[in-house]
Amino acid sequence: MHLRLQQLALAGGMALCLLEAIPSAMAQTPPSAQAPTGATLSLSIADGLLPKELRLIKVRKGDHIRWRISSDTAGEFHLHAYRLSATLQAGQTTEMAFTAFATGRFRLEWHSASGTSAPSGGHHAPPLAFFEVLPR
Questions:
Q1: What would you measure as the largest C-alpha separation in the chain, in angstroms?
Q2: Is there a contact between 54 and 43 (Cβ–Cβ < 8 Å)?
Q3: What is the pLDDT of residues 37-88, one digit of tens each?
Q4: Which residues contact 12 (CB under 8 A, 6 or more apart)?
């Protein structure tokens, strides 16, 4: 569930604010993947993208994370702020295991070996996904 703030105008210039719970399907955030701590999540990159349901990965601080990462092209996968990266060859699968130690929302990026994932003159590519670590 997500929360939405609604403001209603009342007579006399007063306003009433309502906090409304809305189902996730109606929220404006991308769908997310949540794996139980210690579970392995497969991240298969195709044409420089992850499936929509993997573009927001949510965990809790202290969770043990294990990803199996593969791509149809060669390149580098990395997780900002955690300073983790993996170099992949096309069709290769690599495992990345770590503990979620910092809370926040972090960019997962894919840099294709062909150089097509980063904008011209820029260092950062558009995010492949976001990794969100929530406090316990």
A1: 66
A2: yes
A3: 667 999 999 999 999 999 999 999 999 999 999 999 999 999 989 999 999 9
A4: none
* CB burial of residue 25 (10 Å; 0-12, 13-18, 19+): exposed
pTM, full prediction: 0.68
* 54 DSSP assignment: G
Domain regions of the chain by residue span: 1-29, 31-134
- CATH for 31-134? 2.60.40.420
91: Cβ–Cβ under 8 A, 6 or more apart, which residues? 70, 72
Those residues with Cβ within 8 angstroms of residue 118's Cβ, 6 or more apart along the chain or in another chain: 111, 124, 125
CA neighbor of 56 nearest in space, from 24, 88, 84: 24
Tokens 């949540």 label which residue?
34
Can you tell me which residue has the tokens 């492949």?
128
